Amino acid sequence: MDYKARVCIDESRLDAEWIGQASFFMEIVEAEAEANQQVDLLKESLEVIEAQRADSIRTQYADTKLTEKALAQQLVQDATVQKAKEQLRKAVFQQDIVSGAKKAMEHRKSALEHLVKMQLSQNRAEPTVAGASRIAVQEATARQRMEAHPVVGPTRYKVETKQEW
């Protein structure tokens, strides 16, 4: 799964992104559960392999006294144990990536919430001009409307003026 693509937000389609957020998050949660399960299985498998190889090494050196330190050194050098540890390292790496993707999806949800709020506030925003009062902007807007539609009488776009105290 391409987690980077799942985390990206297409701002031109916020409605689709918002609707798909829950299903994307669920996919990541399932992937995380599978990664956790894989790590657990490989840990158990490593323990079994180490026990089997330890028994094999003890049998091989049955005529001499083998210390635990010497046994541990033999296990570290064993190719089967090394291969099992490598598989476990790869699974833990994948588990970390999926865990990070889950955190990124939580951030994505928060970002979507804020983007939707920003878009909604911009849709309802009044026109503004730097350094001008709200009444001056309303009057200028009304004048522009009257000039754009000269057929319409001036009573259609009445500007409410309120004194600011």
Q: Can you give a write-up of this model?
A:
It is a single chain. This protein starts with a helix and ends in a 17-residue tail after the last helix. Helix 2 crosses helix 3 and helix 2 runs antiparallel to helix 4. The relative contact order is 0.11. The chain folds into two domains: 123 residues; 31 residues, no CATH class. It is an all-alpha fold and 165 residues long. The model has no long low-confidence stretch (mean pLDDT 84). The protein is built from five helices and no strands.
Structure summary:
This protein is 74% helix and 0% strand.
Element order, helices and strands? HHHHH
Count of individual helical segments: 5
Using only C-alpha atoms, the radius of gyration works out to: 34 Å
Mean pLDDT: 84
Q: Using the alpha-carbon principal axes, give the shape.
A: rod-shaped
Strand content is under 5%
> Which structural class matches the secondary elements?
mainly alpha
How many E strands?
A: 0
| Major sheet description | none
What is the count of structural domains? 2
What is the helix content? over 70%
Q: Note the gap between the termini.
A: 61 Å
Low-confidence stretches: none
Notable features of this structure?
5 helices; mainly alpha; 165 residues
